[in-house]
Protein: Phosphoglycerate mutase
Amino acid sequence: MTTFYLIRHGEPEWTINERYKLRGHGRDLVPLTPLGIKQVYEASRDDRLKNAQLIISSPYTRALQTAAILSKELQLEIQVEFDLREWQPDLSFQYDTMKQLQELGADYDLHNGIYPEGETRLWESQPMMKARMEGVISKYLYYEHVIVAGHGMLFRTQYPIEEIPHAHIIELNKVRG
Structure:
């Protein structure tokens, strides 16, 4: 069995998005706030992480910065996994405002992350996210303990929880084979 320690990134500095008018994936380049950095340092002291053998991380800045702090504190290597990226609110990568993001998120929530019968949406569905998360996890089942630095919506495809606090750790056990 492999234990994955899913760690949501620390608090991000979202105000940068509006200041620089970032669009699409550019909105995922924001670093952590000072509070977010502190949250990750606190999480790194959790005794459960001492057995970890590797850190895998989303490619987004907030998750990579989280992974870097954990790596420094725990003396572990980081492997970047593109499929650990956060939910894609707009698969055309054109959204550019918080209002649009909130509208896309509200539509996702209205449909519980599932496209209505016979329809598609701009946003990535919950089954799409779940499949890519499980694809990544399956590659690391030969380890016993793995830290995963990533995102709340993606982690919620594996663990039923309404909201995951920043730098919160969730244990996910998966059976090899």
Remarks:
- The beta strands are 2-8, 54-57, 78-80, 145-150, 169-174.
